[in-house]
Amino acid sequence: MTSHDCVQAIRKITGIKRIGHTGTLDPQADGVLPICIGGAVRIMEYLDLDFKTYRAEMELGLVTETQDIWGSVVSDGRDKINDLSAESIGSAFESFNGLIEQTPPKYSALKYAGKRLYEYARAGVEIEIKKRNVFIKDISVNDVDLTGHKVSFNVTCSKGTYVRAICNDVGAMLGCGGAMSGLTRVASGAFSLEDAVTLSGLSDMGKDGIKDVIKPVDFPLVHFGRAIINDEGTAERFTNGRPVAFADAVVEDAPEYSLKEPYFAIREEYKRAYNMYTVQSGQSVFLGVAFLDGENREFAADKVFFKGEISEAVQFAGRN
Prior knowledge:
By secondary structure, this protein is α+β, with helices and mostly antiparallel strands. 21% of the residues lie in helices and 32% in strands.
């Protein structure tokens, strides 16, 4: 099943057409696939920089066309595995921490001149695939089985990182070759495997049960700041797309985005992004996302998610 297949299935289950996913999983992989439903698809662009964590398995001694064990074998280096040790393998993986250059696999969905790379590969057309920077926040080996030629590891990485390519490149560094033999995404930003629901489980819940597992639209926006608009009239002006003076909101948290992580090539506005709320009858209601304009000292709405009379906000929160 592809990520798109999953979206199609959820459209049938929910009866909602406006659905999108926030990170493609290879058909052979499993794990967390965040799904945005209805108006929540508008936050997808905000999630591009979320780190993703994978539990992966690599088979030593094989190089394949697809960089995983499901592809045609290009070379067999299993006779060189006896020269390896758990220490040398661990050191090879450790060298991939931080900002690295990576060449995407030729069997991937990246586009070149309007076509997917795998389309060229299947047609036997060789093209030059440019290297690109990706950021590995953490990578560590869990277990080494030299007898079974297996290495399991965890990796937390930026969007666009191919774990298959890590296996291929580590194998090349070790001199024996390597191919990915298993992949599970255990986290994607704020979403974790422990909180995930299976597609079959979702189907069994029915529409009423599904409401219990849907997260609020602001749930994954953990890197943005937080500001409260207490005045009802000011909150309504914000929901109509009008700017709000800095003095008319209470800032509770600042944005987390910074230049500390070298892979961040984010929109400058994200460093000034705030989740905007109002409070009615003790309930916090998410209104939308705004960018702080420091020069004019005001919050300018980027996307508004609550529309209507603020007096209805409590009922709105209860319905969503």
